């Protein structure tokens, strides 16, 4: 590694190259094909620069028991006129039995004193020895719940994990951040606050297509879990299977039942399973009913936010709602460390909405 | 006091400081500030989902325009100056629905009554609940008139927070000297309360300036050595490679001391020198800044001539281009005695800083654009390495770069690998761009949002302004009855006149090579 850095900083190579010293990023790629795909996806994307990225490949089926490693230094110019920023990339392939003990290979390679993020694409094998070992070396777990095979079970496992030392970052939660921001904005200001408490229904619209039901389920649970956790909703019925078509979930607040419904619309394969619209209807006691809606526009880069209070204010505006790539989301999540207490309470409620009994942090 | 709206869906979110719906009235809405800074920043906030629903802007200006004319002008301005340019048409269209224009004469009471009618109507249509911000993007000479007219028209409520609040934003200069600053404050305070007035110094909106507080008070490492026992001197440099950029009329009445030192540079000094505030709230922070300013020794008489030097650029070369001297700039008198460079040495007479000089220098047409605060630590006892080249024994320097290449670097010395004990300086460098991927917001974005939220931490309080003038006014007084140096006394593209070097060299120190 020292020799690699000498090459990089040699005057003829990249003068002024800066070696970043921010974090260790360990990625469990599983297969060599997925590792290559991830490398391509990450290369050239604006991302927070880890000091060292370690990609793990588990090749259990190959005979023998060995470890293969390859390392390189990757540099990119973050901004014009700025020095190139460089980080190290190490690819580890565990062959045979070693594939289940990769943590022992990773630990000596971590840069000391830097936080370690473990990114596990797909649904992690919660409870499996390899996952537990890898989690043991990490400070932060990165997952994407929209890729969970079984969202209800996955979120329930995450709710339990939230009691652990590691913080959890969910790319799907990050994907929902602009939606949450636009929805929350409806109720900023003293005049609008009662409408949050007076919600009567929540309707979510998703793009239809491959795996859309699975992705939409995780998103429905998180979004309803978020609003529910803030407003004290409790489940009356549960969403214990994947959403499909016009699914309904009913929650309660006090003596009021609130319907959570979903709908799928064709918006192209790129939008399959992604949120394209949210509608909330509210009627606080003594006030006229109001409708709040956010709907993606056809360009899929913007959304129209509409606020319609009967006999009163009618406001409409367009806000950017860019569909972020996994690399962009990853970049944002790598800036968030520690426990996200909001997310932790949301996955607790989301698990309950999915019909899973979990311990919910108070 | 800072209010946070009690929206249940905000609880636990990263962005918890969100503004209530309001109307911003920009007085002087056709001017340069509105075009270059205000409207692009408001649009940027809209792109980042930070503007509240129903947020509206009313332009109030002399020019005869209708809503559509002004919207069109503003769109061009955003296209030119926004960091999100080119404009996203759909976002602009909905943002522009909230832009309105009112042709007005600042001295005509009827115009303010018509404005009131317009705002009341917008409140009903856009749910802005009587919350109003009056932004005076006008020459400071009309601040008192506008404030008085706003009051007379019933456009100013008593509320700084709560329902139907009113806030006033003004831009520097806040007076020309202590007396005029006090007069301006009295006039504004006859209509508004102090907690309704937001005096903008855009330096305070810069991320790196805010980071000074984080750096000092969130790291255990530096605060114990942040005093006279360990620090030899502090150098604050604010260099600009540009000239006065067609602002000759203004600059002739201001000069570098008023334009830069009284505001931006003394702000940097206070943030560097202040004690830790008891809380991160507007008054606690500003109390400590005022205390630091009060401790700055006032320079009078002979001390002004000794510790303050001034300069004016002549023709020269900057960035490979030949540029005119100051006196040849548009709107500048051919025999102008206005300073475009000033360097001064200030002492802070308190327990922490007694005996540690603060050197400040600022100038136009310097070799490059750069603002930084450099803390030079006292030299280590070097008896151990006395046989080495004394030039290699440089002291540790902590440099906080405000712009460009925002970041912090620490100079230390290290042994050169080999048999002997050769020593060379090396740098530990933190660059914002290498650690954080997200874009740094413009200073005005942060400050405009703070006004909407009602957080005045990054704005200058009345007593802070007056304390800063108490430091600067005696220098101006001394200069007013002392012949100006033989201007021009430095060539454009250089680091200022010789007397600037002599100011620091006579103390056995040198300006940092930046």
Task: Give a short synopsis of this structure.
The complex is a heterodimer of chains A (362) and B (514). Chain A is an alpha/beta fold and 362 residues long. Chain A has helices at residues 2-9, 32-42, 102-106, 129-137, 151-161, 171-175, 177-185, 193-197, 212-231, 326-333, 341-353; strands spanning 18-19, 24-30, 52-59, 66-77, 84-95, 116-119, 140-143, 167-170, 199-207, 234-235, 248-253, 256-265, 275-282, 290-296, 302-309, 314-320.
Describe the protein.
The complex is a heterodimer of chains A (362) and B (514). By secondary structure, chain A is of the alpha/beta class. Chain A has two domains: 2-138; 175-324, Dihydrodipicolinate Reductase, domain 2, CATH 3.30.360. Chain A is built from eleven helices and 16 strands. Chain A has helices spanning 2-9, 32-42, 102-106, 129-137, 151-161, 171-175, 177-185, 193-197, 212-231, 326-333, 341-353, and strands spanning 18-19, 24-30, 52-59, 66-77, 84-95, 116-119, 140-143, 167-170, 199-207, 234-235, 248-253, 256-265, 275-282, 290-296, 302-309, 314-320. Chain A starts with a helix and ends in a 9-residue tail after the last helix. With 514 residues, chain B is of the alpha/beta class. Chain B folds into two domains: 8-171, Rossmann fold; 204-505, Dihydrodipicolinate Reductase, domain 2, CATH 3.30.360. Chain B is 35% helix and 19% strand. In chain B, the strands form four sheets. Chain B has an eight-stranded mixed β-sheet, with helices on both faces. In chain B, strand 16 and strand 17 form a beta hairpin. The longest helix of chain B has 26 residues, at 248-273. The radius of gyration of chain B is 24 Å and the shape is globular. At the A-B interface, helix 7, helix 8, helix 9, strand 15 and strand 16 of A face helix 3 and helix 11 of B.
Query: What name does CATH use for the topology of the largest domain in chain A?
Result: Dihydrodipicolinate Reductase, domain 2
Tally the structural domains of chain A.
Answer: 2
Q: Which bin fits the share of residues in helices of chain B?
A: 25-40%
What's the average pLDDT of chain A? 86
State the CATH class of the largest domain in chain B: Alpha Beta
User: In percent, how much strand structure appears in the residues of chain B?
Assistant: 15-25%
- The geometry of chain B reads as globular
Quote the CATH topology of the largest domain in chain B: Dihydrodipicolinate Reductase, domain 2
- CA radius of gyration of chain B is 24 Å
In CATH, the architecture of the largest domain in chain B is 2-Layer Sandwich
Through-space gap between termini of chain A: 46 Å
- Which structural class best describes the helix and strand composition of chain A? alpha/beta
